[in-house]
Batch of 4 targets.
Target 1
Amino acid sequence: MSHKPFKAVIPAAGLGTRFLPATKAMPKEMLPVVDKPAIQYVVEEAVEAGIEDVLIILGRNKNNIANHFDAMPELEQKLREKGDTDKLAKVERASDLADVHMVRQGEPKGLGHAVLRAQAHVGDHPFAVLLGDDLIDERDPLLPQMLAEYDKRGAAIVALMEVDPEHIHLYGVAEVEVTDTDGVVKVTGLVEKPNKEDAPSNLAIIGRYVLGPDVFEVLEHTQPGKGGEIQLTDALQELAADPQKGVFGVVFRGRRYDTGDKLDYIKAIVQLASDRDDLGPDLRPWLKDFAAGL
């Protein structure tokens, strides 16, 4: 398909209550995963997929996110004077990654409302939505395939992952049909956070979506759903029911880290640090010794 370039939207207005008191003054998206804030991994993922225009949806007390992606001339000059080129490059990378914009959500009224706040910036471009606390390992790229499927089908694309039925109530869940492409399904229905007995499958929506600007028209009349919030899942359900539009899912089988959950956040740090050349050789033997002593 021929269309305007993709943009990226990263909702980051949540309160992060699961990490209190750490997130009382620090946005959960700024919590470090090894030595970078979680949200930087997400912006880097969008850039690696070829997206240069990134909009971050902020909430109250989230100014640290904007500061992180701004240049810091004083710090950069001090590092330059010290000859610390390695740290200088890391600091400059955050501000040079992409054309990063910010808009405030105001009151957190759900993911659908956050996406709707991006309408003025996105305009008539297709766009990717990347949740700010959901990390996809760079060795298992997902977004490029989703963008390609959007180009092929001209329909909304969601990322799906097989989930243990005991945890299915934490996700939006898809009812699906097979397609002629391996690993791609047609979504025929969506249920937000069902009980495991009511779930139509074990395929859960994870924090990646590729959408056309037509989703804004749907979100404008989407009523508050579960939790009293405007759910993106409800808007996608309407698109899935429209034979002229439709929704498709890319089934992801790679490595994903949910940094919005305390245990998964700790696991993400350990896994990513273990795989690094600068940390892994010392960390892996220590982990074995530590585990053996439990």
Target 2
Amino acid sequence: MVNATTLTFVVYLIGMVTIGIIAFRLTDSLSDYILGGRSLGPGVTALSAGASDMSGWLLLGLPGALFAAGMNQIWIAIGLSVGAYLNWQLVAPRLRIYTEQASNALTLPDFLENRFSDETRLLRVLSAVVILLFFTFYTSSGLVAGAKLFEATFDMPYDAALWIGAAVIIAYTFLGGFLAVSWTDFVQGTLMFLALIVIPFVTLQQVGSWDAVTAAVAETNPEFLDAFHDMTVLGIISLAAWGLGYFGQPHILARFMAIRRVSDIPLARLIGMGWMVIGLFGAMFTGSIAIAYFGPDQLDDPEKVFIVLSQVLFHPMVSGILLAAILAAVMSTIDSQLLVSSSAITEDFYRQILRKEAPETELVWVGRISVVIIALIATLLATDRDSSVLSLVSYAWAGFGAAFGPIVLLSLMWRGLSRNGALFGMVSGAVTVVVWKAQTGGLFDLYEILPGFIVCGGVAILVSLFGKPASEETLVEYDRIRAMWR
């Protein structure tokens, strides 16, 4: 007999696929498939950006980190909040205007090529390769999180859980493209928000009071209450540096490009930041209160703390809804990553280099087939059930933040950035992340995004200042478009 939790899950999955089918009927062109025809309202934009950003990390990785290490993990949340706000404030309006004005750029590589009038196509090809490389790891992290959820909920083998989760995500992303991804993200973001309020609140009621929580945590390990426990200045900077990643995440930047109009951005920013801050606090409270609830006996896998609380504290039907929120967090990021990766193949390789005259219908189907291929590769990489969600996310986040972040900021805020500056900066940032990560424990135990970001920005500026300057055509076009956002 099917229990209530399973039934809730099945209904949720059917709903997501249904949204994909509806979006399929509204998707006629590559622009529709990649950016939804630039038609997203502020609410959908905000929750879609937030849900695709946070992923399973918010409900699995962050509560697990607080449960295992205590309040010193709060610096990640602080850095992310500051970075997200600056991204909405500085990048969102400029990128929305520039991408539409610069030959209606549909992807980040498309924008970079148009921004620097790069006839060699090196910027497009290189940035597309970076997207495919790091999104492979990012997508794998989400699939690991989803498989852990199915495994814990339905007591099924990890491999079976992995492939079932991947199949559902492939289905609606394949069918509906950006509209399906954005609409499902809106639903998923709402579920995540509610779950991150309900779980810590109910757990706190079971424990008794916040004083009881702090007393229990202190009994387990008094240092868990200290945000500066085992932290150095460099360590705090390293955790807070997560916020730098926002400026270079293609799946988040795509939401800025797709919003209906620039005047909708302030409302979208308000909704998005409110959702994010409350969600981060909910995740941190969940991890801390769980220490008091479970006592000194730690869970075998701290990243399952949210799952276990959902199962032991609630009626199976409610538990199913809360666990669906975790699945929502996972799916909302994977689908966005698959779509951006598919867009890189379809728009930046297939149409621009292989088949310039390809009809729209053909391009949409190339995009759909690309979704399937990329998802299968990522699923194969995720077959290692011992992979840490937080570790996989941190590597991909650093890769994008260091390779694209400084280039996006400079390209939108400094007219003097040259094509060669952008090209060499991007390469140096990506290489720095890979080399830094390859060192045992990381050089100086510093998160690789920070040195990568600094190297990328520094190289881009130096090459632009002392190498071949930006072309006159690029400067004129930059001045023309910049006048529109003043």
Target 3
Amino acid sequence: MSVFSPGFRGRSRPAGHQLPPGQYETDDFPVLSAGPTPRISLDTWTFTIVDETGGRHSWNWAEFNALPQTSPHVDIHCVTRWSKFDTDWVGVSLDTLLEPVETQAEFALAVSYGGYTTNVPLEDLTDGKAWIVHRFGGHDLAPEHGGPARLLIPHLYFWKSAKWVTELRLLDEDEPGFWENAGYHDYGDPWREQRYQGD
């Protein structure tokens, strides 16, 4: 006996969207954090890129917002198995932020207010693949979602998109971050289900 009414075909999926293996689609935006939500004043907020020689390139809030802004329209995928399609952000491309930086580094470590860290190959932050974003869905980014600004790397699991980001350290050698040291995968590709070390 069927439990579905005649004509039921399940929830339609927007054309062109695919779920990575093991994921389900949600319209919500679940809030998951490793610790308390920091409240950062825009008067003291800074974002700094530190190259492998210790050279520093910093922007305060006004300087950051004066940079060219882009509007990524992307799908995001959390390691806890939810995916959200068609998310809209506003922020600054890492290509723009890295433009004045001379580096031979191959890796980066994102550092957040509150001490959270996560690692990523530098090539995954360039060529239009990553941003520092400060608006979501037409509004300023809420603190629980990483505001005033967070890293956005939509092609990797969302723990790599560090909330409350304040620094990007460029490194010659890979340095695991918070969740990577706790057993999460070093890279985190949702299409290969790289959730944990060994996946």
Target 4
Amino acid sequence: MVAYVVLANFTDQGIRNAKESPKRADAFKAMAKTFGVRVREILWTQGRYDIVTIVDAPDELSFMSLTLSLGALGNVRTESLRAYSADEMTKAVGNML
């Protein structure tokens, strides 16, 4: 599985319908399952980003399809970060020259 941190900001449409955000989060979890993506956590935040989500995807294309589908709904704009576990990082630094 490939881990990602997804940083999201409400669009104008999304903030107008902020009361529906918890329901939209449930819908996102269901959508993610159709792509084989597991949603570990969804957190609403204060500061630069409105929502932080952590997901595990079976591959990069599944994740890309999910985020494009999410963006097409028009409620959030996202920025995604590939995340590495401690084991993955240990392997990466072990390969350093």
